[in-house]
Structure formats: C-alpha cells, structure tokens
C-alpha cells in the first residue's frame, strides 16, 4: 500500500473560528488534515457534516497548555499520517485582565501558557524532522493586537507581541535548513473570541475570507503578513504614533472584558 501523496497540514484550535476555517480551506485545496482540539467530538461531527473523506483526516485530542499532550499529538500525527508539510499553531485565548486584581495574574499565566508555550510545544515535535527533510512551514498566529498595548488587554497584547518575536527568532534558526516560518497577524476576525468585544472592530473579516488569504500567504512563504491588509496600514500608523498621541487616542476606550465580567 503506497502512502497518500497529498500534502498534510497540522492545525491546532481546529474546533471553531480561524482554525476550522483554515481546515476547510486546506481540505478544499486537496490537502490531508491533522486537526487538534480539546473538543474532538465537535471536530469529528463538523467534518462529517461537511462530508469530508475520513481517509483524508485525523483528529487528535490535546490542550496546548499541556506540553506532554500537545507534543504527544504531534508525534502521533507523524506515526499515523507522516511528517506534515505545514504546521499551524492557531490555538489561542483572549481574556481581559486588570493587574490590580490578584486573580488576573492567573489569567496572564493561562494566556502565556496557551499563546506562547503552547505555540512552541506545537512546533517542537516537527522542527528537527522538517530541518532534516529540508522543507516545511511552521505558521504562528499572532495578532495586530501585538503591535501596541491596549487597555485591559495586557496579557493578550503581550502574548501576541511575543509570538511575533519568537517566530522571528525561529525563522532565523530554520532558514538554513529550508524550513519556512510564517507569522500571520489577523486583524478583527468574526469568531467567538471577538464577538464578546465591547468596542468597535474596524475591517471585521469573516473567517473563510481570512483563511483564503492565509492559505495564499503560507503558499507564498511570506515571513510576516497582516490580514486584512487594511489592518496592516492601521498597525503601521499605530506603531509610528508618539506615545502622547497614542495615549490620547485610546483615552476612554472600553477595556477588554475580564473573565466572568458582564459584557
């Protein structure tokens, strides 16, 4: 029996939002899927509803905060489906925090464990094998929110700024071996994470539209891409603003809601 020659993508956070949209886009392009989520039954039910060929996908249960679980999922993927061509570390959380609240220090810990440690642990099983093969792409999902700190959003903004720096470091390490590291920075995407926001979200984008642009950016081997492009312009302007103007612009802006807080 010959191995399936179709390329393979490994995606975390595949049960909803961006992860699910990316899975659909890659499947439509003829790829095989390795999907990771805490809620595996939901992913399997969704795939069945879409009429996806069960021979072209596998679902692995793991919480990216559990390093043993997510690295184990990566190893299980390689044993069952082979070494992926693309690995997308998409799983992430977004919760507001107030540093004056002791309980919110735990929110920051959880955010970093998910958005940063979880991202590195997602990549870990594949890095050495990809470098030995001399090809592949590791994709980190950052955010425009990582460009500057937003009120009430300290944990998330800091974690996504760290994603950008981490992926930049990893890109330099992997480049000599032919492995690409792609950083994608979404703007506002209509997902369960953003629907809870209580402030305006310019250039709000649907997940399938984001997934289409992300697919093309990954195929092109882009080192860094803001999606949609309009938010890239906004991000550059925000980065260029002197602090006194940036602070004035954000004065009175609603804070990101905290865990358990009324929306």
CATH topology: Rossmann fold
Rg, alpha carbons: 18 Å
Number of helices: 8
Largest sheet: 7 strands, parallel
Structural class: alpha/beta
Task: List unreliable stretches of 5+ residues.
Answer: none
Order of helices and strands: EHEHEHEHEHEHEHH
CATH architecture: 3-Layer(aba) Sandwich
- What is the total domain count? 1
Shape: globular
Give the C-level CATH assignment: Alpha Beta
DSSP strand tally: 7
Spatially, the strands of the biggest sheet line up as 3-2-1-4-5-6-7
Please bin the fraction of helical residues: 40-55%
Straight-line distance between termini:
55 Å
- Proportion of strand residues: 5-15%
Q: Which terms would index this structure?
A:
263 residues, alpha/beta, Rossmann fold, seven-stranded parallel beta sheet, 8 helices, 7 strands, 47% helix
How would you describe this structure to a colleague?
The chain is of the alpha/beta class and 263 residues long. It has a single domain (8-250), classed as NAD(P)-binding Rossmann-like Domain (Rossmann fold, 3-Layer(aba) Sandwich). 47% of the residues lie in helices and 14% in strands. The chain contains eight helices and seven strands, in the order E-H-E-H-E-H-E-H-E-H-E-H-E-H-H. It has helices at residues 17-28, 40-50, 67-81, 104-133, 154-174, 207-220, 229-240, 243-250; strands at residues 8-12, 32-37, 57-61, 86-89, 137-141, 180-186, 224-227. The chain has a seven-stranded parallel sheet, sandwiched between helices. Strand 5 (137-141), helix 5 and strand 6 (180-186) form a beta-alpha-beta unit. Helix 1 packs across helix 6 (207-220), helix 3 (67-81) runs parallel beside helix 4 (104-133) and helix 4 runs parallel beside helix 5 (154-174). The longest helix has 30 residues, at 104-133. The radius of gyration is 18 Å and the shape is globular. It starts with 7 loop residues before the first strand and ends in a 13-residue tail after the last helix. The mean pLDDT is 90.
